[in-house]
UniProtKB/TrEMBL annotation:
This is Polysaccharide biosynthesis C-terminal domain-containing protein. It is found in: Cell membrane. The keyword Transmembrane helix applies. It is a multi-pass membrane protein. It comes from the Bacteria. InterPro entries: Poly_Biosynth_Transport (IPR050833). Keywords: Cell membrane, Membrane, Transmembrane, Transmembrane helix. Its main location: membrane. Residues 177-191 have a biased composition (Low complexity). The chain crosses the membrane at residues 20-40, 118-138, 212-237, 249-271, 291-312, 413-433, 445-468, 480-507. Residues 163-191 are annotated as: Disordered.
Length: 548
C-alpha cells in the first residue's frame, strides 16, 4: 500500500469533499438541463425545438470564446498566491524560475484584486462588442444557420432528416398553441429579402417568412443582449474556486442557475400549452416565443453574477494595485485563451453543424439523444473544479507523487460513477428517448455511439487538466484544435447523408483525439497514468489508516 504524507492525504480528502460538492451541483444541473430539453421537445415541434437549441448553443459557444479562459487564469493566480512568497508573482507551473516558499503566509495578498481587474477589462469590452453585432445581425445569422440544410440531399436512413415523424406526440384535445408546421424533406426557404436591421430592433417579420427562422433570429437577439452578463457570471464563479472552495460554484452554477432556467423555461412552455398567445403558428407569434424562451433561459445569469461578485468582494482584501498584474496575468492566460475558446467550440459545435447541414429538426433529435452526455461532462467538471487548484500547487511545487495520486483517484471515481450510467443508457436508450416525444427514439444509434465514446474518455481521466496544470497550455490548445479539425472533417463527410448519427460519429472521432493526445504526452513527460497504485486505495478514503 502506498505511503501518503499528511499533506497529501489532506489534499486528497479536500478534493474528495470538493468533488462531492461538485457532484451535487452537477446532479442538479444535469437533471435541470434534461428536463428543459424534455419540456421544449414536448411543448413544441421538432423544428421549433431545434431552433431554440441552436440559439442557446451558439450563445454558449460565444460565451466560451469571450471568457478568454479568464476563469482558469484567476484560479491559477489566486490559488498560487497561497504558495508564492508575497514578493513573488505566480508564474506558470513547471517553469524552472518558479521558487515556492513553504513558509509563506496563507493570507491572500493584495495582488489578486489587480489580476481580477486585468482579467475583466478586455472581457467586458469584447462581450459588449460581440453582443452588439449579434443583436444587429441576428436575422442574417438565423438564415445562415437554417438555409444550408434545405439544399443538401439526404440519403434514406433510420434517422430520416426533418420529417413529420419527429413531431412529438400530442394527446388529448388539440392544444391552442401549435408548433411550427412540421418540416418536410424540402423545407421552404425564407421568402423575404434581407432584413432591415437597426441595432437592437428589427422590422416586423413578413407574413411569408419562415416562422422557424423568425424564432431563431428573435432568440439569438435576446441571448445577444444577455451575453455580457452570462460571460461575466461564469468568470466570477470560476474565480471563487481559486480560494479552494466549491460551495459557491455548486450553489450558483450547479443549483441556482439551472434550477431557475428550468422554472422559467417551463413556465413559458406551460403558458403556451395553456393557450397564452399564438405559439409559433405565425411569424409574429414565433418572434414573441423566441424572445420569451431566450429571456427565460438567460435571466438566471444576472443573480449569479451579482452573488458571485458580492462573495468575491468580501473575500478579496483591499490593497495597492500591482503594476505588472496585467502583464503577468495575460502572459499565462493568453496562450490558454485560444485553447479555452477551442474547448468551448469543440463541446458544442456538433449541434450547430447538424442544424446547418441537416436542419433544425435533426438538431433537436441530436440534442435529445446526446443530452445524457451532459451527465459525464458535469461529473468530470465537478471533479476537475475541485482538483484543479490542488493540482496547480502540486505541479508548481514539483510534487509528482501527489499529482499522480490525485489523477488516479479522480479517474477511478469518474469510472465508478459514470460507466454504469453509460452502459444503462446504451441499453435503455430506445425507451428513455420516448420522454422527448414520438420520433426521438430513432436516436438510439446515436446513444450507443455516445455511451461508448464517453466510457473511453472517462477512462483517460482528467488528462488535459493535468497537462494544463503542468504549464503546457500551448500543447493543450494544439490538441483541442486538432480534435476540432477531426470533428469538422467527419461531420462534413457524414452529416449530410446520416444526419444526427453522422454528427455523433464525428464528435466521437474528435473526442478520441482530444483525450488520447494529452494522455500520451503526460505519460511520456511525467510518467502520469490514469490507473495505478492509487486507484483501488482511493475507494477506501474514509478509512483512517489510508492517511498514514
Amino acid at each position: 500500500m502506498p505511503v501518503v504524507s499528511a499533506g497529501g492525504a489532506g489534499a486528497t480528502r479536500s478534493v474528495v469533499k470538493g468533488g462531492a460538492a461538485g457532484l451535487v451541483g452537477a446532479a442538479v444541473a444535469a437533471g435541470s438541463q434534461f428536463l428543459i430539453v424534455v419540456a421544449v421537445t414536448r411543448g413544441f415541434d421538432a423544428r421549433t425545438a431545434g431552433c431554440f437549441f441552436t440559439a442557446t448553443t451558439v450563445c454558449l459557444m460565444a460565451a466560451g470564446v469571450l471568457r478568454l479562459d479568464c476563469g482558469n487564469g484567476l484560479i491559477y493566480f489566486i490559488a498560487g498566491a497561497h504558495t508564492a512568497t508575497p514578493a513573488q508573482e505566480p508564474t506558470p507551473a513547471g517553469r524552472a524560475t518558479l521558487r515556492v516558499s513553504t513558509s509563506a503566509t496563507p493570507a491572500m495578498p493584495a495582488a489578486p484584486r489587480g489580476y481580477l481587474r486585468a482579467a475583466l477589462l478586455p472581457v467586458v469590452i469584447l462581450s459588449f462588442a460581440v453582443a452588439a453585432l449579434v443583436v444587429a445581425y441576428a436575422d442574417a445569422l438565423a438564415t445562415a444557420l437554417t438555409h444550408t440544410a434545405t439544399s443538401l440531399p439526404h440519403s434514406a436512413t433510420s434517422l430520416t432528416p426533418a420529417t413529420t415523424s419527429l413531431t412529438p406526440a400530442v394527446t388529448g384535445p388539440p392544444p391552442t398553441v401549435a408548433g411550427l408546421t412540421p418540416a418536410t424533406t424540402s423545407p421552404s426557404p425564407v421568402t423575404t429579402g434581407p432584413a432591415h436591421v437597426v441595432l437592437g430592433t428589427t422590422a416586423a417579420p413578413s407574413p411569408g417568412a419562415d416562422p422557424a427562422v423568425v424564432l431563431l433570429g428573435a432568440a439569438l437577439r435576446g441571448l445577444g443582449l444577455a451575453l455580457p452578463v452570462i460571460v461575466l457570471a461564469d468568470i466570477l464563479v470560476s474565480a471563487t474556486r481559486g480560494f479552494g472552495v466549491m460551495r459557491p460554484t455548486a450553489l450558483l452554477s450547479g443549483v441556482l442557475q439551472p434550477g431557475a432556467q428550468l422554472l422559467l423555461v417551463g413556465a413559458v412552455v406551460l403558458a403556451g400549452a395553456s393557450g397564452v398567445g399564438e405559439g409559433t403558428r405565425t411569424p409574429g407569434s414565433a418572434s414573441g416565443t423566441g424572445w420569451l424562451l431566450a429571456a427565460a433561459w438567460a435571466a438566471p445569469a444576472l443573480p449569479v453574477l451579482a452573488l458571485s461578485a458580492f462573495w468575491l468582494r468580501r473575500r478579496m482584501p483591499t490593497g495597492p494595485y500591482v503594476p505588472r498584474a496585467a502583464r503577468a496575468f495575460w502572459r499565462y492566460t493568453g496562450p490558454r485563451a485560444v485553447g479555452g475558446a477551442a474547448q468551448a467550440v469543440f463541446q458544442r459545435l456538433d449541434v450547430v453543424v447538424v442544424a446547418v447541414l441537416a436542419g433544425p429538426a435533426q438538431a433537436a433529435l441530436y440534442t435529445a439523444a446526446t443530452r445524457f452526455k451532459v451527465v459525464g461532462q458535469l461529473v468530470n467538471q465537478g471533479f476537475a473544479q475541485a482538483a484543479q487548484p490542488r493540482l496547480v500547487r502540486a505541479m508548481a511545487e514539483g510534487d509528482l507523487p501527489l499529482a499522480r495520486r490525485l489523477y488516479q483517484m479522480t479517474t477511478m471515481w469518474l469510472v465508478l460513477l459514470t460507466w454504469p450510467v453509460w452502459l444503462g443508457y446504451a441499453v435503455l436508450a430506445p425507451w428513455l428517448l420516448r420522454a422527448f416525444g414520438d420520433g426521438y427514439p430513432d436516436g438510439a444509434a446515436v446513444a450507443v455511439v455516445l455511451a461508448a465514446t464517453m466510457m473511453l474518455a472517462t477512462a483517460c481521466g482528467m488528462a488535459d487538466v493535468m497537462l494544463i496544470a503542468a504549464g503546457h497550455t500551448a500543447a493543450s490548445t494544439a490538441n483541442i484544435l486538432s480534435a476540432i479539425a477531426v470533428t469538422v472533417a467527419l461531420d462534413v463527410a457524414l452529416v449530410p447523408s446520416h444526419g444526427a448519427l453522422g454528427a455523433a460519429l464525428g464528435w466521437s472521432g474528435g473526442m478520441f483525439a482530444k483525450n488520447l493526445m494529452p494522455l500520451v504526452k503526460i505519460a511520456r513527460l511525467y510518467g502520469l497514468r490514469p490507473f495505478g497504485a492509487h486507484s483501488l486505495p482511493s475507494l477506501r478514503l474514509w478509512r483512517a489508516e489510508e492517511a498514514t
